[in-house]
């Protein structure tokens, strides 16, 4: 951790930054309110990712379209890559998709994003010897009537010791802000996603990844987003300096 300096070897990404859709997709048959809800994107994640990348002076990869078009954080072949339903909401425009439409979404959007992200990681490794990647996401505070009891989730691969050490230090730096951090919550760090895919391409000695998951309860308005962006930035800087 001590060898990583702001600006050196760092990559920030935000796969679910946007709820937009290309005009030709006709909103996938969803109404405007649904398209602005958590099923279409990670509410508030974009602001936090931008603030973090700006403060670090590093590259930011940001999804341009809703995850409902094609999910940048899912592997090809994953059943929710182009979800026919999400959190119980049917996505009409994704039902019975023609193979050519699937291929088009992958070629025009999924592949360029994943390739560009991998190239940034490669570039950071070539230039700095290793890469630290932070993938910024947010989660809905309640699922199926059950509250999720964390403010921050830090997701990592327990098999990679450097990632566990980094996540624990980061958690220690978030705690003084009075926010609750949980490890590998609400998802496991080894679940399907960009970090898991990149771990298959780059060894632990070269590539360290943390996915940060923020509770959308804290991100509902500008004041909240600004606060959480500041907490994320300051705690991460303290982690890098430790
Ligand atoms: Zn996400």
Summed up:
The protein is an alpha/beta fold and 242 residues long.
Provide keyphrases for this structure:
binds zinc ion; 6-stranded mixed β-sheet; alpha/beta; 6 helices; two-stranded antiparallel ribbon; single chain; globular; 242 residues; 10 strands
What's the average pLDDT? 95
- Distance linking N and C termini: 7 Å
Strand content: 15-25%
- Give the low-pLDDT segments: none
Give me the number of helical elements. 6
Number of strands: 10
Percentage of residues assigned to helices: 25-40%
Order of helices and strands: EHHEEEHEEEEHEHEH
Query: Can you tell me the overall shape?
Result: globular
- Biggest sheet architecture: 6 strands, mixed
Question: What structural class should be given to the helix and strand makeup?
Answer: alpha/beta
Question: Would you kindly provide a written description of the structure presented here, covering whatever features stand out?
Answer:
The structure is a single chain. The protein has 242 residues and is α/β, with parallel strands linked by helices. The chain has six helices and ten strands, in the order βααβββαββββαβαβα. The chain has helices at residues 32-35, 45-56, 99-128, 161-174, 194-201, 222-241, and strands at 10-14, 59-62, 85-86, 89-90, 131-139, 142-143, 146-147, 152-155, 181-183, 207-215. The strands form three sheets. A six-stranded mixed beta sheet has the order 2-1-5-10-8-9, sandwiched between helices. The chain has a two-stranded antiparallel sheet with strand order 3-4. A two-stranded antiparallel sheet has the order 6-7. 40% of the residues are buried. The model has no long low-confidence stretch (mean pLDDT 95).
């Amino acid at each position: 951790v001590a060898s990583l300096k702001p600006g050196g070897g760092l990559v920030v990404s935000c796969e679910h930054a946007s709820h937009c859709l290309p005009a030709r997709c006709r909103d996938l048959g969803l109404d405007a309110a649904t398209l602005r809800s958590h099923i279409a994107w990670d509410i508030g994640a974009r602001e936090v990712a931008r603030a973090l990348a700006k403060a670090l002076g590093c590259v930011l990869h940001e999804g341009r379209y809703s995850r409902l078009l094609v999910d940048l954080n899912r592997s090809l072949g994953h059943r929710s890559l182009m979800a026919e339903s999400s959190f119980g909401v049917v996505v009409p425009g994704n039902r019975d998709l023609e193979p050519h439409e699937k291929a088009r979404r992958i070629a025009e959007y999924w592949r360029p994003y994943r390739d560009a992200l991998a190239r940034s990681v490669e570039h950071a490794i070539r230039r700095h010897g290793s890469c630290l990647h932070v993938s910024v996401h947010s989660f809905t505070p309640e699922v199926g009537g059950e509250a999720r009891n964390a403010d921050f989730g830090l997701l990592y691969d327990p098999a990679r010791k450097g990632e566990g050490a980094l996540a624990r230090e980061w958690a220690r730096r978030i705690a003084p802000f009075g926010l609750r951090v949980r490890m590998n919550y609400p998802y496991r760090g080894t679940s399907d996603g960009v970090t898991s895919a990149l771990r298959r391409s780059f060894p632990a000695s070269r590539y360290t990844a943390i996915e940060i998951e923020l509770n959308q309860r804290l991100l509902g308005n500008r004041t909240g987003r600004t606060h959480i962006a500041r907490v994320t930035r300051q705690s991460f800087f303290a982690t890098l300096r430790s």
